[in-house]
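Checklist before submission:
- one chain only
- standard amino acids only
- sequence pasted in full

Submission:
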Amino acid sequence: YSFNVEYLDKVASLVRKYILFYHLSNGMIEMYDPKNRRTFLKKCRYESITLKDLYLGAKISVYSRLLTVVSYGDDFTKRSLQKANSKTLCIVKAPAYEFAGKILDFFIQKGFVLTNTKMCNLLPQQAAVVVGSQGMNEEAKSLAVDNVFAFEFTCKDALSKMNDLCGLGGQPADSKLRKILAKLPLEAALYTANSSSDVQRQLDFIFGKQIPTIASFNNCTVCCIKPQAVKDGYCGVVIDAILNEGYEISALEMFRLDIEAAKEFLEVYDTVIPHYSAMVKHMTEGPIIAMEVRTEKEETVSLFRELAGPADPVVARHIRPHTIRAKVGKDKIKNGIHCTDLPEDGVLESEFFFDILQKAK
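Returned file contents:
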């Protein structure tokens, strides 16, 4: 398979274009520079990239270069993957806030790949734009009540599969989904895209610059779901664990960090932790989900560290088996989540994602 990718060279202020090849038989990649007509990267194995990571709009990191997939490289790739990588939108409405993690995990278990997410508080006119109504109909009103979770999913026939699971395709809603929602009616819990013609418009609007951050920057800590945990499908598990413990998720968004941003964010660990460079590299290997987590207590940072668990998941599984890292971590580097360590850094880390990086977008 081949893909046209772009890399923003900040030093030269240039957008460099390449063709990336993915070899399905052995998982190897290679890159070609069409402008200079030469191989840019020889065929090699790159474990953090799989075929499901390669879809239009995807951002992938190859040796610290953040590449954007802008188009398919040939007709064969387009024919083979276009339908398999179709997108859809699902919004968890305010009444289902406490079930957001379980709902997300349900769809991931059904084969959907989470490719973008954002928590937002839609104004009435913004909600009307999302549903495509001229005025404030009941659906738009239900989206403008309070904070909502917006999820962009990718999979084969994503729109029809989503609507079938939600009972919008002429079949009853999935029994497991109804069990998650308990007595809450599905129409009060979820909004899903109705037609393929609406999907891209809705995604561009929600994940564009029109919808501002809702972070509070007080009594908060930051939890980041790391690339390996995102790829392994643990996003819903982590969100559910946080909400089940009574914490408030007051802001949430998916980010792709380049090497400079990862170094800046983890700067406090430089010269302190021996595997600092490996930590930085891992944070650039795929998307992360950053969350501002709040309580009304001043000890939010230290309290949340208890829920996160020891930095080494192997240790966590022995002495703190119910912590998040014990459940979703692999090793000291790919330990599932990052959380704020120092009480004075809670607001600073939240501002890094939901102010500094927001403006950079």
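Reviewer check: The CA atoms of residues 11 and 44 lie 26 Å apart.
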